[in-house]
What does this fold into?
Amino acid sequence: MRYVAVVCALALAACSDRPATPVFHAEGRPDLLSEWGMVAIRDGELVLSDRVEPYDLNSALFTDHAGKLRTVWMPEGASAAYRDGDVFDFPVGTVITKTFYYPVDTAGNVQRGDAGIRVSDRAETLDLDRVRLIETRILARREAGWVALPYVWNGEQTEARLMRAGYSETLTLAESDGDLREINYLVPNVNQCAGCHATNNTTRDLSPIGPAARHLNRDFAYAEGIENQIGHFIAAGYLTGAPAPENAPIAAAWDNSDLPLADRARAYLDINCAHCHNPVGPADTSGLHLNIDAPETANLGLCKPPIAAGPGSGGLRFDIVPGQPEASIFVYRMASTRGDEMMPELGRSLAHTEGVALIADWIASLEGDCN
It folds into this structure.
């Protein structure tokens, strides 16, 4: 009877005019996304619950062109502490979500979710007639640390269920030029989540990646109007100890051609690669440091031979050869989709053509040689 009561309550919450109530689960692995209450389905839309704040990043991790709706929620009276150059220090009880989706065309094919296609009248909602929901990942801050849980949406887009063992699905992506290509979309299993979120190879503790000042320092179109995200978090009581946005660091948007090429390239590498390639990260033995503040030395890849790239080197000698992207392992591995060659090695089945071009242009602009 208890199970029936829970299911009925969840169904009523999904159809109610009222937002769902956020719930922090201090232990266990809830089977259904709705048990967390962070998002709800109402009137044909995915909507956020009370005090669940949306946010976006200046430059985002590439995930096979999926769109992403990111949120954070904290218990009443709790707030994150500002940390310079690092993700904010979130309190126990924090729940971060990231919902992956694709816009859909009239034929039912998915389109690039990272191409700015309008999918709702409001930035913090998703119109279910315009999108295909794929998964929602949860990061929850418990007493013992962060836990990562992936939830996969059903075909009716009414509920998402925990998939601890991961999930894969073949999607047909319709490009703007009319070409169709298949995506083997992969949802990571619980252990694979650590491949990105265990940013310290010694502790192996999970951590968020995106919610740092340099990534969040940008405007967002909230329901109440456009506002800087850092300022909004401060006003909402979600952030303490932070400087004013104009005094906080800011990462370049990699796709903003009005910004310096080097800034865009470094920001792209920072968000896509530095969670592993940093001095203490899972790839610490590679000696390759791609964090935003890494100096431009051999540790950034300049004339650096690979430690153990195997076939990933493509027969090339150095990670970066200044002025020669075609001779650089960076470009070779980013353009590859082979499992034993490609970088990043998780989270994609496609090569990010625009990202590869950006890094190639940056390498072409570098002076010097490896003789």
Notes: The chain has a mean pLDDT of 91. Residues 253-365 form one domain. The two ends are 75 Å apart (CA to CA).
